[in-house]
Amino acid sequence: MTDADLFYEWGKEKPLRHDPIKAIVAPRPIGWISTLDRDGRPNLAPFSFFNNLSSTPPTVVFSCETETDSCDNAEATGEFVCNFVSLDLAQQMNVTSEGFPPGVNEFEMAALEAAPCRLVKPPRVAQAPAALECKVLKAMNLTALDGQTLRARMVFGQVVGVHIRHEFITNGRFDTAKAQPVVRCGYLSDYAVVKEMFELPRPRFTPRQLTGKRDAV
C-alpha cells in the first residue's frame, strides 16, 4: 500500500461522497423474484443482493432492504421464482423496481407475460431466458458486530425446477453470452451487460510442484 491509497474505517469516516461498497462488489447478478401473497396476488421485483450459494443441491439467496413484499410473500408461502434478466428485458425489470403498493401486479405494470410454473405456485416471466423455481429453506436477519439487527432480510431457497428457453441452449450448455444478462455495477442506476466470455482453464499442479521438490538427476 502506498500513501496514495485511500483507507477509511467504515461507519466512522466518510471521505467519499458516495459509499463505494456496491461499486467495489460488482458486477452483481440480479435476482428478478416473483412471488404470490397470501391472497394469491403476484408480485415481481428485482434484487441485486442476490446470488447462487451452492450447486448440490442448488441454493440461492436474495436480500430485501426496502422492498419487503417479496420477502414477506416468500416467507408466508414458502415459494419464489428467480427469473433471468436479459438485456431485452432491462426496461421491464426497471419498471418492476418501483415501490408499488401491495397487491399491484407488476407483471401487468411492465407488460410482461406471466407463465405458470411446474412445482411452485408463483408465476415466472415467460420472456425470460431462464427461471428457477425455488422452495424457501430459511429467512433471517443478520446481527451486526454491535449487536444490532440488520434491516436486510435474507431468504434462502433451494432450486427445485429449472426453465430454459430452447434458443439459449448451445451444445448442451446454457449460453450465458447469448442471453446477455444484465448486472448491477455500483450506484443507483449503474448497470452492465455480459455479451462475451472467455475460458481460463484451472491449473493442475502436481504434488511435486506444490512442495517445490525437484526430480533427482
CATH topology type: Pnp Oxidase, Chain A
Listing every helix as H and every strand as E from the N terminus to the C terminus, the arrangement reads: HEEEEEHEHHEEEEEEHEEH
Per CATH, the architecture is Roll
Write down the Rg: 21 Å
Outline type = globular
Summed up, the helix count is: 6
Helix content: 10-25%
Rounded average pLDDT: 93
> What is the CATH superfamily?
Electron Transport, Fmn-binding Protein, Chain A
Task: Tell me the distance between the termini.
Answer: 43 Å
Q: In CATH's first tier, which class applies?
A: Mainly Beta
Multimeric organization: single chain
Secondary structure tally: strands: 14
Lateral strand order in the biggest sheet: 3-2-6-9-10-5-4
Report what the structure shows.
With 217 residues, the protein is α+β, with helices and mostly antiparallel strands. It has a single domain (21-211), classed as Pnp Oxidase, Chain A. The chain has helices spanning 21-24, 69-77, 90-95, 106-109, 176-179, 207-211; strands spanning 28-29, 31-36, 42-47, 50-55, 58-64, 79-83, 114-115, 124-125, 130-143, 149-164, 169-170, 173-174, 182-184, 191-193. The strands form 4 sheets. It has a 7-stranded antiparallel beta sheet, with helices on one face. A 3-stranded antiparallel beta sheet has the order 1-13-14, with no helix packed on it. A hairpin with a 5-residue loop joins strand 9 and strand 10. The radius of gyration is 21 Å and the shape is globular. The N and C termini lie far apart (43 Å). 26% of the residues are buried. The mean pLDDT is 93.
